[in-house]
From TrEMBL:
One of its GO terms (cellular component) is lysosome. SMART domains: Pro-kuma_activ. Keywords: Autocatalytic cleavage, Calcium, Disulfide bond, Glycoprotein, Hydrolase, Lysosome, Metal-binding, Protease, Serine protease, Signal, Zymogen. The keyword Cytoplasm does not apply. Its EC number is 3.4.14.9. Pfam families: Peptidase_S8, Pro-kuma_activ. One of its GO terms (biological process) is proteolysis. It comes from Pundamilia nyererei. SUPFAM superfamilies: Protease propeptides/inhibitors, Subtilisin-like. This is Tripeptidyl-peptidase 1.
Length: 558
């Protein structure tokens, strides 16, 4: 079996095809104004497109994930190998035959697959791609000095083929701008405590002894926005802030190629805080290994997870997009990829976003705007908090930017129905109007951590006031890695998909956050406010923030 040639591209984005009969869409693809048109792609220029083949037994995969993730199940922790996952979900012989025949009929033979055989990545000329996908027209666009190739028009596939494909990647979706992690700096003039590894360890009750020690443990961050960390920054950060605990000052493995130029705040933040919280644990960085303008980096990372037998046990990812900008078919397939990781014992943590409940303007009516993958039922989503008193380590309140809400696409999973329905009932009188959100949707976040006013070293300079759930997510990830470390020492399996067990804790071992609200639509009805924190679970901070020794104790009680 050939391994896929992984080619990452520009910033984090999704591409999707909504199959409805023969045509994807009757409307032209809207190219945001910030993307400047450069030129029409020449007919002989090469493109790389990704074909997501229909998988088998997705319902069995979901049930297996439920069983291995439920602490009350006799199958809890009995994770599958990549080979076992592949044998479960690999496309049918008919699907493989139909898709290969379709590609070969257009002279497309330069295709590589992966171990699970449910993705094909094919190289072809633009002229061939436009014949293969009638209606597509490939153009080159530029933003902030970065180029990508996308189709400016909708496309179609034959009826007998679309039943065997979930989507084709590399055609439409354009990446959102990266997060402005220092956007709250102006409002924080004057002295402030600032969040450092020592502050986090004090607040969450980690001691100097809470560091990794086993050889078979590892953790990872993933970068999609052409963000790079600099090893010198990590070394200096640990010299400044890592004196109180045993730690590593180097990343053990970079999957991909580190770009040149300046370090990115996002990448620096992720690496420095997963390695100072999950201290002394082997850490990987997944990054952009060279760029092909027609590829999608998030999709390539997901494919990579299905092509590597040995992976870190905890991955933290700080990117997302509006649910309504993606097709349900695409998100559903990405959910299946998350399930494939979960049944292998891998924990995927996503930031909940920095727009509160979000807001979508629909004519005269507004609704809240959930984010994906934060809204996926198959990942653990991390929100954000601030100190009540910004001048000392105190209890936490909500960070008003903390993303949270209810999916408009995915139903509420069974593991959270009791907690979420209790919240909806308890605070019914103060909830936003029901027209703003879907009360039966997957609710998020699941938990939270401090997300306000971090110190980061980037380009050899200590930078204050860095804020966002991009900060809280690697902090939680690092703590889960420490817990995995202790589990491995006892001969227990990795935590894997945490949510079913997290919700059965019913708030035990977490600091409940009960004060504050996050942003919502700025209109007459909700007046800029989304949801508010409440006792137990809420859609701003989830179950609250980790009390590490207590959380370790309950997650070691197998």
């Amino acid at each position: 079996m050939n391994k896929l040639r992984l080619v990452f591209s520009l910033p984090f984005l999704f591409s999707s095809v909504v199959w409805s009969g023969y045509l994807e869409s009757d409307q032209d693809v809207l190219i945001p104004q910030e993307w400047a048109h450069v030129d029409r792609v020449g007919p002989t220029e090469e493109l790389e497109l990704t074909f997501a083949l229909k998988q088998q037994n997705v319902h069995l995969l979901e049930e297996k994930l439920r069983l291995v993730s439920d602490p009350d199940s006799v199958q809890y922790g009995k994770h599958l190998s990549l080979e076992e996952v592949a044998s479960l979900v690999r496309p049918s012989d008919l699907t493989e035959k139909v898709v290969h025949r379709w590609l070969q009929s257009h002279g497309i033979t330069n295709c590589l697959t992966i171990r699970t055989q449910d993705f094909l990545q094919c190289t072809m000329t633009a002229e061939t791609a436009e014949r293969l996908l009638p209606g597509s027209r490939f153009h080159r666009y530029m933003r902030d000095g970065h180029y990508l190739v996308r189709s400016s028009a909708p496309y179609s596939v034959p009826d007998d083929v679309h039943h065997h494909l979930d989507f084709v990647g590399g055609l439409h979706r354009l990446p959102p701008k990266g997060l402005d992690l220092s956007k709250k700096q102006k409002s924080k003039a004057g002295f402030h405590l600032g969040v450092t590894p020592a502050v986090l360890r004090t607040r969450y009750n980690l001691t100097s002894a809470d560091v990794g020690s086993v050889q078979n443990n590892s953790q990872a961050v993933a970068q999609f926005l052409e963000q790079y960390y600099h090893p010198a920054d990590l070394s200096e950060f640990m010299a400044m802030f890592g004196g109180g605990f045993q730690h590593r000052s180097e990343v053990d493995r970079v999957v991909g190629t580190q770009g040149g130029g300046k370090a990115g705040i996002e990448a620096s933040l992720d690496v420095e805080y997963i390695m100072s919280t999950g201290a002394n644990i082997s850490t990987w960085v997944f990054t952009n290994p060279g760029r092909h303008e027609s590829q999608e980096p998030f999709l390539q990372w997901m494919i990579l997870l299905s092509n590597m037998t040995d992976l870190p046990w905890v991955h933290t990812i700080s990117y997302g997009d509006d649910e309504d900008s993606l097709s349900a078919a695409y998100m559903t397939r990405i959910n299946t990829e998350f399930m494939k990781a979960g049944v292998r014992g891998i924990s995927l943590l996503f930031a909940s976003g920095d727009s509160g409940a979000g807001c979508r303007h629909l004519g005269k009516e507004n609704t809240f705007r959930p984010s994906f993958p934060a809204s996926s039922p198959y990942v653990t989503t991390v929100g954000g908090t601030s100190f009540k008193n910004p001048y000392k380590v105190t209890y936490e309140v909500t960070d008003s930017i903390s993303g949270g809400g209810f999916s408009n696409i995915f139903k509420m999973p069974d593991y959270q129905t009791t907690a979420v329905n209790s919240y909806l009932k308890t605070v019914a009188a103060s909830l936003p109007p029901k027209s703003y959100f879907n009360t039966s949707g997957r609710a998020y976040p699941d938990m939270a951590a401090l997300s306000d006013n971090y110190w980061v070293v980037s380009n050899r300079v200590p930078v204050p006031w860095v804020s966002g759930t991009s900060a809280s997510t690697p902090v939680v990830g690092g703590m889960l890695s420490l817990i995995n470390d202790q589990r491995f020492m006892k001969g227990l399996p990795a935590l894997g998909f945490l949510n079913p067990r997290l919700y059965k804790l019913n708030g035990k071992a977490l600091f409940d956050v009960t004060e504050g609200c996050h942003y919502g639509c700025l209109d007459e009805q909700v007046q800029g406010q989304g949801f508010c924190a409440a006792p137990s679970w809420d859609p701003v901070t989830g179950w609250g923030t980790p009390n590490y020794p207590a959380l370790l104790a309950v997650l070691l009680s197998d």
